[in-house]
Amino acid sequence: MAHRHSLRTFYLLIVTQTFSLIGSEMSSLAVSIWVYKESGDVTPLTLAAFFAAVPRLITPSFAGVLADRWDRRHVMILADAGQAVGTFLLMLSFLSGAFQLWHLYLVSALQAAFSMFQGPAFSASVTMLVPDDHRDRANAVQQMRGAAAGLVAPTLAGALFALVDAPGVMAIDLFTFAVAIVVVGLVHIPRPPQSAEGRATQGSLWREASVGFRYLWQRRPLFLLVLTATAVNFFFAVVGVLMTPYILSRTGSEATLGVLLSLFSAGALVGGLIMSAWGGTRPRTRTIFPGVLFAGLMFAGLGMARSPVALGAVAFAMMVPLPIVNAAFDAILQIKVPPDLQGRVFAAVMQLSMLLMPVAYLLSGLLADGIFEPAVRREGWALIAPLVGRQAGSGIGLMTVMAGLLVVFITSAAYLRPDVRRIEAILPDYAALPDESPEAAGIGERSPVPEGSA
């Protein structure tokens, strides 16, 4: 009975947080449309992405500490309220007629910082709300939030922008934040029992902020798995930020661009649905590594695709395994890490996985505009043209092929390490001490996790 109540709480949180995320995506798109129409330049939008990326390298460690110290509901409320304040300030800037681009950059950084409090608190709460045998599916459902928002928000934002302009869309975003804050405030999330490791790590804020990194470093296979994710994210990000100009160059159609971008989200949504029904493999590395390898190959295929049909098919296929991979990886952390340390460990994983994102954003434009696209017009390109073509966008296509193949190489190298491949057999599951029983924490008994060797 307690399981069913906790699962209801989990799904209620998922629904309301998805609702809030749709509002945020709509608001972001409406502001982007307004800024681009007024300036006619994409640079302000790429700079906004850069300023949003920087606080994501700093905030997670402290967010993880608060997620383990405080009631996790309060951390999620803080995340939503902080982002709502940013939206409100930006809306006032628009309504007063005093808007300047630095307002957008400042709010982008503010909202990114507060958004980092959401992830560790929510992911760690899954452990307390969902029993082990449902956790992979629950993580998959959690991964579907972004995909669902990506499907719904663009259409709604475009329609509402025409009716109420950017400030009106931001007002709707504030309403969705309010709904999320009220719901989170009303539900119950059990506090995790204090583990021996948790007691040993107590100290100052700065000391506790480093706990997640030390935990990963002391479990070297887990640390190497996270570094693999960092490298994979870097190569995806270098070219991922160029998808809009790449698709426009290949198709020459804004309408086709919108459809293809929706197919990215549709693929992720289908992947989440597959994982929620399937539950993944045991050991989970047999889900994670094949999934990333397939995504890397599809990413390379995206660089070679030239027709809208081929681009759409490859984009959809590339995104399907990603929520499956993320759900399986989250489940490993939730099983191996004591619940009272999970906020800090999830924060450290988030911080490390995004470590190279700002570098990727700065490099992508330089590589595309300075090297790869100009190379299309040179004689030597005739050797590469059969692979990616020789029209505008072919240089970015070659970047995409190279990035996808590098993802395949890095993932294969990591899988060839026995300690990384057999991480679930090597690292022990978290086992509650007698005075740390799951029943005392308000959750059911842990079911055994089948282990196996790859």
Can you tell me the CATH topology of the largest domain? Growth Hormone, Chain: A
CATH superfamily of the largest domain: MFS general substrate transporter like domains
- Assign the CATH architecture of the largest domain: Up-down Bundle
Give the CA-based shape: globular
Number of strands: 0
- Helix proportion range: over 70%
Structural class label: mainly alpha
Helix-strand sequence: HHHHHHHHHHHHHHHHHHHHH
N-end to C-end Cα span: 36 Å
Regarding CATH, which class of the largest domain? Answer: Mainly Alpha
Mean pLDDT across all amino acids: 87
What does the oligomeric state look like here?
Answer: single chain
Structural write-up:
78% of the residues lie in helices and 0% in strands. The chain is mainly α and 454 residues long. It folds into two domains: 1-189 and 204-209, Up-down Bundle (Growth Hormone, Chain: A), CATH 1.20.1250.20; 211-428, MFS general substrate transporter like domains (Growth Hormone, Chain: A), CATH 1.20.1250.20. Helix 13 runs antiparallel to helix 14 (308-319). The two termini are 36 Å apart. The relative contact order is 0.15.
